[in-house]
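Entry 12.
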Amino acid sequence: LGSGGMATVFLARLSSVAGFQRLYAIKRLHPHLQREQEFVDMFLDEARLAARIHHPNVVSILEVGESARGYYLVMEYVEGDTVAHLLARAAQKQTRLPTEVTLRIALDALAGLDAAHELKDDHDQPLQVVHRDVSPQNILIGVDGTTRITDFGVARAAARLTTTRTGQLKGKLAYMAPEQARGQGVDRRADVFALGIVLWEALAMRRLFKGDGEAETLSRVLNDVVPPLRSIVPTLPSGVEAAVMKALERDPANRFATAAEFADALEKAGRAVRCAGPADGCATCSRSGP
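Predicted 3D structure (tokens):
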């Protein structure tokens, strides 16, 4: 299905009696990464943690294992495409996604993030799960119309690699919260900031912080003033703009404290927009999760 800096993803088919079959995605670590024992240990630990997340808006990890060909994850196969590809095709056609569709994608993604952030262990203690790599490439839209977050835990493991591939950091920097880019400790509010970037870009149909190199991108993440969305999309409801701008506050204390708070603000603001959901014709309909 694809290959990135860390792994190759294969489409697998499980066959059984009476012609039963089901498709899965298998993500296999590249061979050279398996020599990085510290990375492998953290990757497996994070994957086991992510496998505890069960939510309609999160791509499920069904198995973590090792074979003669190396370490792998077995994941739910989502037939569809990434937000990155969706936005790229819209840009090629010089059009934009309908605002109600963009809000529906964001609400689904926030529901998945909130479910992960609220995850607790067997003793009812918070597990402090943070995605750390919320980006258009890690948000999948299925043919069923449901948006799902994928790759929980992978970013934290990737940060422990002794070598950084050319361009790997640059791509992540463009969607990093300032505190994460500085190498400081992060919590769920870093994911709120990252989703804020994704939503800003999807509504404005332009990149927010990406520069010509890592240094410029980092400088923009840390210092650039975020342009108000209504200066680019004048028809956007003011409440939607306000919610996105609050998510993009550089001081974590001034952001939404949780993904659920961000979603609630978008839902209220989205009542001015006709919704793609099936219920009451506004952005509050059919939201998954708590």
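Annotation: Strands lie at 2-3, 7-15, 21-29, 61-67, 70-76, 80-82, 139-142, 147-149. The CA atoms of residues 189 and 253 lie 9 Å apart.
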